[in-house]
Amino acid sequence: MPRKRSDTVTQAALYPLDWLEERSGLIGGVKYFLFRKVPGDTSWWHTLGSATLTAFLVQLVTGVILAMYYKPSPAEAHSSVEHITHDLWGGWLVRGMHRWGASVFIILMFLHMGRVFLFGAYKYPRELNWIVGVLLLATGLFEGLTGYLLPFDQTAYWATVVAININGTAPFVGPFLASVLRGGAEIGPDTLARFYSLHMLLVPGALIGLIGLHLYLIVRLGVTSPPWSKEAAGETPDEEQPSGRSGLVQPGPRAAGVRRRPSE
Ligand code: HEM
Q1: Which of 17, 33, 71, 214 sits a CA distance of 20 to 30 A from 7?
Q2: 48-79 as b/e, with b when 16 or more CB fall inside 10 Å?
Q3: CA distance 112 to 126
Q4: What is the spatial distance between Cα 63 and Cα 213, in angstroms, rounded to a whole number?
Q5: Is the CB of 134 inside a 6 Å radius of any atom of ligand 1?
Q6: For the chain, percent helix, then strand, then coil, each to nearest 5?
Q7: What is the pLDDT of residues 13-31, one digit of tens each?
Q8: CA 25 from centre of chain
Q9: Are 146 and 193 in contact (CB under 8 A)?
Q10: CB within 8 Å of 157: residues ≥ 6 apart
């Protein structure tokens, strides 16, 4: 039978994907990530993690654009930020998104952590992901601290003095920590260069690595049902569930009432 033209077009369009899949398995991996099953009673509360991820991605994109124009020296830092804000097309928007986005990112991280805590989603087998989350929180806050100095105005300068002095009061390691952060005896050009390098290279790199690990563990373990979930408690849900089973992993008795499709 002669082949239909639409089949030929579909095959041609899918060829690059097939090529990649055959050589890397990446397409299968992405499909698994996007279409994996989650509990039927997953709610809006479960979107806080993805919202945090979105805020982080916005910070990455706007940060890369700002880094094209920012100059990390005490003489030029403030004027370069003013230049971005007032002279460049859309500069005020990109800078505003980055500045406000930093707070949005931190607030979302806390809200997401609160949801995980209140749902008891830190318990077995997700303790390791909670620990990764704590590292993400600390690293995220450090990203905020290093970015705050960069406009190099009075607020930035004195806020950094306070932050470094607070670190300096830590037992035993305090003075060493303060000196490492300052990059010398006083806050100056070396401090700014150090904070810039940490802010745009080391800390975002660490965040990307930790987020990768966080997501891997989420996919491996599945997400938890809410505490009020009848499904997870093993009771029959009020309404007919659409299809699919309850998450990928439900340890212990919680799995008792898991409903499966006839084919599974
Ligand atoms: C950059 C910051 C973070 C990003 C991008 C992020 C992203 C996510 C995403 C997308 C999910 C799955 C959906 C959801 O449950 O909302 C998730 C789940 C989870 N997150 Fe985070 N997260 C971050 C920070 C944190 C923090 C600070 C903690 C706790 C200290 C944490 C602990 C967890 C745990 C334990 C889960 C599993 C929840 C479950 O199975 O229901 N995360 N995270």
Answers
A1: 33
A2: bbebbbebbebbeebbebbeeebbbeeeebbe
A3: 15
A4: 23
A5: yes
A6: 65, 0, 35
A7: 999 999 999 999 999 999 9
A8: 25
A9: no
A10: 149, 187
Does the pLDDT at position 256 exceed 80? no
Nearest to 64 by CA among 199, 168, 216: 199
Q: What angle do CA 202, 113, 128 make, to 5 degrees?
A: 70
Nearest CA to ligand 1 atom 1: 136
Q: What's the rounded Cα separation, in Å, for the pair 264 and 250?
A: 16
Q: Is 132 in the pocket of ligand 1 (CB under 6 A)?
A: no
**How far is the centre of ligand 1, averaged over its atoms, from the C-alpha of 249 (Å)?**
16
Note the pLDDT tens digit of each residue in 147-176.
999 999 999 999 999 999 999 999 999 999
Answer whether 136 contacts ligand 1 (Cβ < 6 A). yes
Amino acid at 51: A
